[in-house]
Every structure is written in structure tokens, then in C-alpha cells.
UniProtKB/TrEMBL annotation, chain A:
<dbReference type="InterPro" id="IPR050961">
    <property type="entry name" value="BolA/IbaG_stress_morph_reg"/>
</dbReference>
<comment type="similarity">
    <text>Belongs to the BolA/IbaG family.</text>
</comment>
<dbReference type="Pfam" id="PF01722">
    <property type="entry name" value="BolA"/>
</dbReference>
<dbReference type="InterPro" id="IPR036065">
    <property type="entry name" value="BolA-like_sf"/>
</dbReference>
<dbReference type="InterPro" id="IPR002634">
    <property type="entry name" value="BolA"/>
</dbReference>
<protein>
    <submittedName>
        <fullName>BolA family transcriptional regulator</fullName>
    </submittedName>
</protein>
UniProtKB/TrEMBL annotation, chain B:
<dbReference type="InterPro" id="IPR036249">
    <property type="entry name" value="Thioredoxin-like_sf"/>
</dbReference>
<dbReference type="InterPro" id="IPR002109">
    <property type="entry name" value="Glutaredoxin"/>
</dbReference>
<dbReference type="InterPro" id="IPR004480">
    <property type="entry name" value="Monothiol_GRX-rel"/>
</dbReference>
<keyword id="KW-0676">Redox-active center</keyword>
<dbReference type="Pfam" id="PF00462">
    <property type="entry name" value="Glutaredoxin"/>
</dbReference>
<comment type="similarity">
    <text>Belongs to the glutaredoxin family. Monothiol subfamily.</text>
</comment>
<keyword id="KW-0001">2Fe-2S</keyword>
<feature type="domain" description="Glutaredoxin">
    <location>
        <begin position="16"/>
        <end position="80"/>
    </location>
</feature>
<dbReference type="InterPro" id="IPR033658">
    <property type="entry name" value="GRX_PICOT-like"/>
</dbReference>
Amino acid sequence: MPMNANEIETLIKAALPDAQVEIRDLAGDGDHYAANVVSESFRGKSRVQQHQLVYEALKGNMGGALHALALQTRAPD
Amino acid sequence: MSIQDWIKNEVDTNDVVLFMKGTPSFPQCGFSGQVVQILDYVGAPYKGINVLEDDELRQGIKDFSNWPTIPQLYVKGEFVGGCDIIREMFQNKELQGVLSEKGIETNQQTA
């Protein structure tokens, strides 16, 4: 089952409460998203570690229910 | 040999390894295809490993890297990232920098 954008945002914010999350539905099919996540918890971490934080927040849905989530992460400027 | 040992051996014995869906000449997923294009463009020699050939490998690489998606790129034993990270690093020339820092010959030596 695909996830909707709100579910994705809710899961990310539950794990990273300060996060600014912007989600775009890339294909309009509810299955291919791009997410832009800005959070203080990313500071000082490598890109791999930043993405892993988001993947952990998604609780195993990434790669399963969420087939395609293009991810961009950064700490606030 | 366990699948984890097999993966570790591949990652340790090849300078650049791409775990992907399909093969470099015939990628079977758009994300894998993008990374192939990037590696071909920078001219880095790499070994492509098709996870679709073996379900144990397909899951095993996710456990190995603690990373839920494929493709996954390893350079000199180190996990560099998946498609989004590789694309971002390529666009800001960081990927080329990492490769040349680690002594991988490409066709775009950074100064």
C-alpha cells in the first residue's frame, strides 16, 4: 500500500519534532515522492547519517510501502 | 560463507562497488540507472552487483549497510550513499572529489 504525504510528514515529525518537512508528489500517483527535510538534528552528521535518521523515522516503510522517496536533508542555515 | 561475509569480501576487494537492480549495461530500475549514468560519466571503473539475482543478497545488503533501498555505492570499503546522495554529490562535484581523494582514477581529475 502506498503512503500519503501526510503520513510521511507525520512520521518524520514524530521522530524529529523540529523538522521542517516539505513533500512533493512527483508523479501524482501517491507512490513517488520527494521530501525536503531541514532539522537541527542533522548538524554535524554525514549525508548517509542524515538520511538514516529519516529512514528510521519512517519505521521500516522505506523500501517497502514507500518505494520511491527522493530525499534531501540539511541542517538549518 | 554467509551472505554478510560475501558482501564484506566484495566491498573490501573492489575499489568501487555498486549494488544495483539489474546490470550496468541493463539497469532494471530508474534509480540504479541514474547512478550507472553518473559513474559512467565520471569514468570511474566499478563493479556492478545485481541484487535481483539473489533474494538473500537483496535483503543482505540492506542489513549490511543499515540502508533500506538500492542502489548502494561503496568506495574503498566505505558506504557512500544511495541514488539521492550520489546525485547530489555528483552535481556539486563532491563525488569526483571523493573518488580522486581515494585514488580512484576518473576522466575528470579534480585539481
